[in-house]
Amino acid sequence: MTHRLREKANKAVLDNYINKYEIIGKIGEGAYGVVRKAHERANPNNVVAVKTFKPKIQREGEGVPLTVCREINVCTIM
After folding, report:
1. For the chain, which domains are there?
2. What pTM value is reported for the model?
3. Would you report the helix, strand and coil content of the chain in percent, each value rounded to 5?
């Protein structure tokens, strides 16, 4: 993925995140990302935890580390 395409994709994800959730506070931070407490703008009574992952790709073409993929998988199941 080229640098411009990556920036465009990241902006689209961020815009969706900002439009859908209102951040209440920070819950914690780890090696791969930050967990924040938020509520959905459409349903303020629905409080959620949202994890944003830090970009940690060392070299172009390496992709996402397997440990991050496992963590994403666990987060989507729960």
Report:
1. 3-77 (3.30.200.20)
2. 0.60
3. 40, 30, 30
